[in-house]
């Protein structure tokens, strides 16, 4: 093999390795979004189930959710803290209207924000991204995209 052939083979190997690393990164990011969406859905349903005999969600806190074991296992960390897949705090609380409750996800990265905020959008009372309420329906993706930061806070309100 000549030096030119060897360099060519090394460049080709580097390109293949670089492409593989990119695809692995994308797969990991996609898996994190899917896990976060599943946890959000489970958390919401479990909170609703916990309060199904109550007239409203008055008194609901993250501590009550932890004590009553309605936090998905993948979100519960040592010491009773609740975190999302990006290690951001997750809190649950009664809403400003006591017939609603909120699940707040902090530290959601830019690449995941739109996917998280549009997840089951029609089933939420409201969704805010970085403090701005996002109107559901046509134009939702564009509205979320205008609010994006490196780390985002999404508040899901349910009844």
From TrEMBL:
<dbReference type="InterPro" id="IPR014911">
    <property type="entry name" value="PilS_N"/>
</dbReference>
<protein>
    <submittedName>
        <fullName>PilS domain protein</fullName>
    </submittedName>
</protein>
<dbReference type="Pfam" id="PF08805">
    <property type="entry name" value="PilS"/>
</dbReference>
<dbReference type="InterPro" id="IPR045584">
    <property type="entry name" value="Pilin-like"/>
</dbReference>
<feature type="domain" description="Type 4 secretion system PilS N-terminal">
    <location>
        <begin position="34"/>
        <end position="159"/>
    </location>
</feature>
């Amino acid at each position: 093999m000549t030096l030119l052939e060897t360099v060519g083979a090394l460049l080709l190997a580097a390109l293949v390795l670089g492409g593989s690393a990119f695809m692995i990164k994308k797969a990991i990011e996609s898996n994190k979004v899917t896990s976060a969406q599943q946890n959000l859905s489970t958390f919401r349903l479990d909170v609703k189930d916990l309060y199904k005999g109550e007239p409203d969600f008055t008194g609901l806190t993250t501590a009550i959710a932890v004590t009553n074991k309605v936090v998905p296992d993948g979100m519960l960390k040592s010491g009773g803290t609740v975190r999302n897949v990006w290690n951001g705090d997750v809190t649950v609380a009664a809403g400003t209207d006591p017939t609603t409750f909120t699940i707040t996800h902090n530290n959601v990265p830019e690449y995941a924000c739109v996917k998280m905020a549009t997840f089951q959008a029609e089933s939420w009372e409201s969704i805010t991204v970085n403090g701005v309420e996002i109107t559901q329906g046509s134009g939702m993706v564009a509205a979320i995209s205008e609010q994006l930061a490196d780390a985002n806070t999404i508040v899901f309100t349910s009844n």
